[in-house]
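Progress report, Aim 2. The chain analyzed during this reporting quarter is listed below.
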Amino acid sequence: MTQTDPLYLTGHLAPVPDETEAFDLPVTGALPAELDGRFLRNGPNPLPGERPGHWFTGHGMLHGVRLRGGRAAWYRNRWVRTAKFAGDAPPGGRDLAYNSANTHVIEHGGALLALCEGGLPYRMTGELDTLGPYDFAGRLTTAMTAHPKADPVTGELLFYGYSTAAPYLTFHVADAAGRLVRSEPIDVPGPTMMHDFAITEHHVLWLDLPVVYDAGRPGMPYAWDDAYGARIGVMPRAGGEVRWIEVDPCYVFHVGNAREDSDGTIRLDAVRYRPAGFIGAWHGMGADTGAGARVRHTTESERGTLHRWTIDPAAGTVREQQLDDRDVEFPTLFDAFVGRPNRYLYTMGGPGLVKYDAQGDTATEYVAGPGDHLGEPVFVPARGARLEDDGWLLTIATPGDGSASRLLVLDATDLSDVAAVHLPRRVPAGFHGSWIEER
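Predicted structure tokens for the chain:
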């Protein structure tokens, strides 16, 4: 690396040059014996010598740790073998299989999917080998968001795809078995970058915000557009007109959760960026500017903070409230509460992780080790859990000095250390992951 390397190629973000695996990993502390499954995490990892132009656009790489019987059986990392990875550029027009598959990894209907909102998902094996692009038996003809929502009651997977050409937004529903059963266009005025959305028991919430496709911009061709406006759309899940409600200009990369109150009011919690915050974060992620962009110090106005919109769909009104002043990202929760009233959210932020308790409006911090950068916390419920936070948080700690990473297991009730799995290499800070329980 050189002095002109962009941020996404340096420090804790720097890609690794190869694939590897290791078995019977050393553990500090005691892994809970009931943890039987795989912790998987996706993220961008350019090939050696590549400069893709932005952190968001490197080839997807999955990192996995297999836990069972109180042991860490294996670690392995594998690139997702997409058409883009193979260099198979489409000869003309857009090919939905030509994407990085670098943002998330989920399992639904028996299919393990590496996701990237720029195109089709890729189906993977449990050993992280690539099977190929996945289009729901030919029914999916748009891109697929990296942030689908699995309804904890119906088992449905709700998702969407956005596009640079009309229709700019298309809504999809797959049933619990993984069959795509519904697709419909949603009317939005332009090619906005919609990274996340939310669901409740009866509604879908759209975030139509002013980051818009700009064909002249290299790397990630999206930019802030004051003229576009900002609004939240409330759409009945059963079908019907979208009620659009204007909000103050902002951007949201990640939603925490949404839920309905008994009076029909909807509460949406998300990490909200002011315009300056989005622009600062976008370039701080390492967008190349010719001489090599470097991260700037984050100012108060550039932070992403936990925010709540309280929406009255009948009246078409919204109230905005900042819930905390910490700089946070990647909010997660117990999946059984997606779209339903939840008490807890877990985020990256502060000196490590933050646990938010909505019941007492309190927050608890987990302080990372010196030089460590923690990833997204993934909640794993204990068997027979009686309380919403009865379980563990799994997160990867990546040292800034280039030494090997650790998979941390924390008690979700108080964020105390339970165990650490010592991985055989540094895992670059990445995006999103899942706990895939063994069945």
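The CA atoms of residues 63 and 77 lie 4 Å apart. The radius of gyration is 21 Å. These observations will guide the mutagenesis work planned for the next reporting period.
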